[in-house]
Design goal:
This protein is mainly beta and 579 residues long. The chain is 8% helix and 44% strand. It has four domains: 222 residues, Sandwich (Immunoglobulin-like); 129 residues, Carboxypeptidase-like, regulatory domain (Immunoglobulin-like, Sandwich), CATH 2.60.40.1120; 98 residues, Sandwich (Immunoglobulin-like), CATH 2.60.40; 98 residues, Carboxypeptidase-like, regulatory domain (Immunoglobulin-like, Sandwich). The chain is built from four helices and 42 strands.
């Protein structure tokens, strides 16, 4: 049952990240300010309507975005994307659009899709033919317009109809009054390949979930946060033991599934919160040493799962520290928890201190907890140079992570020349692994990392809090080795869906880069890339027991692949047979 629990945690993180992304998009569509503080009203106004292509009805809640054509061939740097959401009539308006050629991208606002899926040019795979094909498909799919930066332009769009439904209702407290700012949660029923969602109730205790595929869903709600400041952002609460399930029951297995029908609203899904004894955890986040408050720190409260508990109920809440570093979690059941505090990225202003993510254990046993102090470290500073052999990657993400800890910090650089400087602030102190990750990953590997005369591929970096680690040298090469071939069954037929993995023979040194694992296609063909060196091959596939009908993942090491030596840039072909 642990996998559903992990999925719920990922959903919570997705929703929090989505809030920050939505905020950034909204800011991109605001009026820019000149140096004097007055509004600069230059640029064209793009208006139009979106219609569903199958019914010709207005397409509501459609996200309309303009992608400048130059970005398709040169996506480096910050990309400003004018964005609007269509209203009930399918109308949209984009103001102050600069002159240029744009592609008009329209997708349902409630669609769960990543930017990489929508905009394939942002992160090329390194396969030039595949990347070119995706780019051409993007150009064919969306309308291209030319904006002169002065005159208005009207664009009508005919878009794909997802035939979404919605769920709406109210949340009431134990006295029958509207539960204002209650967190309402939605989870898909068994077998549905869709993610969950969460939304707060309004001043009338009302909520609505938009963009739902047809099917059954589980709806639940947390009590409102216990805060006297009604202007403060609500906690994101999703703790097992605090939720009430529709139609007002305590156990998920007793809840009634809510059915969604395409193009219709399932209304009056009302929840009356069941009272129970819940507590508050409150405290302050401050910098170690100086005692300065940490503002706008992001905190997660994660309930520890007992070994004998098999519930799939979610167990995480989110909140933020205020201008004085104060924070609180409300509606917390008894139990043991981990509090994780991490900086908001990007830092909102220079009053927010950069610090290393940290965690602290806390136990709730029948009473509120107040004045809990969490001290965070300013960490260390790491700087140096990244050099490149051969081709340049699209980007390099440099991750500094403390061993056996969630504390980590990262930056991403876009190389434009053979040697690129980097600076990493608020990196964790202690025993640290420094790991570069290239994009695309399969075409590059880390050849060397050295600092203070220490090989950081063989040994970790040791640094005390406040240290300034300089002159770190990282060498990245495009001379990955490639192993390809075909996997055949004992009968000589292609074995599809087989996982082929290359495992380094030497375990005393980290191997970073390439794509050492891959599945065979319908023809049994595979293709993996690795740094040069010696490897053994592991082949895994799902097999079914003839007697019990149980399926398991079977791993084997082919006889002709016990030792594979690969030189820089080498391309080797190896065909293997599996039993």
């Amino acid at each position: 049952m642990i996998e559903p629990y992990k999925r719920l945690i990922r959903i919570c993180i997705f929703l929090v990240c989505f809030a920050f992304i939505s905020s950034a998009i909204a800011q991109n569509n605001q009026t820019p300010l000149n140096s004097g503080g007055s509004q600069t009203r230059s640029g064209s106004i793009i208006t139009g309507r979106a219609f569903f292509e199958d019914t010709n009805e207005p397409a509501t809640r459609e996200r309309v975005q303009l992608i400048v054509s130059e970005a398709l061939n040169n996506p480096a740097g910050r990309l400003r994307i004018p964005t609007a959401i269509t209203d009930q009539n399918g109308q949209f308006e984009l103001k102050f659009v600069a002159a240029g050629d744009y592609y008009v991208v329209s997708r349902p606002a409630d669609e769960h899709v990543t930017a990489n899926e929508l905009f394939p040019f942002l992160h090329p795979t390194g396969d030039s033919a595949a990347d070119a094909a995706k780019l051409e498909a993007f150009k064919k799919q969306y309308v291209k317009i030319t904006v002169d930066g002065q005159n208005s332009l009207t664009v009508d769009l005919h878009v794909w109809n997802p035939h979404y439904g919605r769920i709406s209702g109210h949340v009431f407290d134990s006295e029958g009054k509207p539960a204002i700012r209650s967190s309402v949660h939605l989870m898909p029923g068994p077998g549905q390949g869709v993610t969950g969602a969460s939304t707060p109730t309004n001043e009338a205790g009302e909520y609505t979930f938009f963009g739902l595929a047809a099917g059954d869903y589980i709806v639940s709600a947390n009590p409102p946060p216990k805060s006297s400041d009604q202007q403060a952002p609500p906690d994101f609460q999703w703790l097992a033991g605090a939720v009430t399930y529709y139609p007002s029951v305590l156990q998920r297995q007793e809840s009634a599934p809510v059915s969604v029908i395409s193009d219709r609203e399932t209304a009056n899904i009302d929840i009356h919160l069941i009272p129970r004894k819940l507590h508050t955890i409150a405290g302050v986040v401050r910098m170690r040493g100086s005692g300065d408050p940490v503002t706008a720190g992001r905190l997660r409260l994660i309930k520890n799962q007992e070994a004998n508990v098999t519930t799939v109920s979610p167990s995480v809440s989110f909140t933020s520290s205020d201008a004085r570093g104060n924070w609180s979690f409300s509606n917390v059941p008894d139990g043991t928890y981990q509090i994780v505090v991490e900086p908001v990225i990007p830092f909102p202003d220079d009053t927010n201190k950069e610090f290393v993510p940290s965690e602290q254990a806390v136990a709730v046993r029948g009473d509120n907890i107040s004045d809990l102090v969490i001290e965070v470290s300013s960490g260390i500073r790491i700087s140096g140079k990244i050099s490149f052999e051969g081709d340049l990657p699209a980007s390099v993400s440099l991750i500094a992570a403390r061993r056996l800890s969630p504390a980590r910090t990262s930056i991403t650089v876009t190389p434009v020349q053979r040697v690129t400087d980097f600076q990493l602030f608020a990196a964790p102190d202690g025993t640290i692994d420094l790991t570069p990750r290239t994009q695309p990953a399969r075409l590059f590997y880390v050849k060397a990392i050295e600092a203070r005369g220490v090989d950081l591929l063989s040994s970790p970096l040791e640094a005390a809090e406040g240290s300034d680690v300089q002159d770190v040298h990282i060498l990245i090469s495009s001379q990955v080795a490639t192993l390809s071939g075909r996997v055949l069954s004992a009968e000589g037929t292609p074995a599809s869906g087989v996982m082929v993995t290359l495992i380094p023979k030497l375990r005393d040194k980290r191997v970073i880069g390439g794509q050492p694992s891959g599945r065979t296609d319908a023809k049994g063909d595979f293709n993996v890339t690795v740094p040069p060196g010696e490897y053994s091959m592991q082949v895994g596939r799902v097999v079914k027991d003839s007697q019990t009908e149980e399926r398991r993942f079977s791993v084997s090491h082919p006889d002709n692949a016990q030792r594979i030596a690969l030189a820089p840039g080498e391309r080797k072909v190896l065909n293997i047979t599996v039993q």
